[in-house]
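Reopening this ticket.

The earlier resolution said the output was attached, but the attachment link was broken on my side. Pasting everything inline this time so it's all in one place.
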Amino acid sequence: MREKVRSSKPEVRTRRQGSGPGPFGFRFSGFGLPSDFGPRTSDFAPQRVAFTLIELLVTIAIIGLLASLLLPALGRASEKAKVTKVHAELYAVGLALEMYADDHQGRVPPVRVDCNTDLNAHWCQFPVELAELRYLPRSDKPGMAANMEDVFHPSHTYKYAAPGPQILNDSPGGNFNVWSPDDLPHAASATGKWWSNPKEAPVRWVIWSLGPRPDSAKSQDSHAPLTAASWYRRAGDSGVIARFATRDGMQWKSP
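Inline output:
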């Protein structure tokens, strides 16, 4: 009989993963890792987090403090931006006035004053000639022949004055008087004189905005806008923003 010859190769028994304990007593999962490897599910249980009442009140107080510090600064920045825009627009109006004068033998437009109830707030109206002759864009709003609205005084144009002819209620009304200090263009003097003759007056014309606070005492000063005491100077201040030309043709502006 033939003897059954055993193979010299060791018998290899395969075990399906996860079917029993592995080396060192660990039980393996389907990926070859111990089934009890890593943190337990309970370690990641969500925890409820909430502000206490004191923390909430402190947070609100901090936000309020920051707002109180930032809002005034933003307001001042906005006001300065508007002042810059006013100066730029008054500069453009000054150029338009000089072009008009060049085309009309050195004369500037007359001053218009309206005593009618619906237009009496539009004293020293912006010269309509600049819009009618296309030196500046037109407007269809009452009391605003030119589309040059005062940034700080909605529905009103910038003011205009010049010594010389005046149109009162749409009819010739003599000459308009402009007060000018003795030290123009510096305008620091408290003494001055009213001028109505354009050939003698030290000022040729003046245009101005009533400023951020149109109804303030500085903006409504009887000697405004050619007295430095009525000029706007810094954020938070009141007063007018002016541009004017002296008799020699030089243009000047308030701060």
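Reporter confirms the inline version is readable. Confidence is low (pLDDT under 50) at residues 14-19. The two ends are 128 Å apart (CA to CA).
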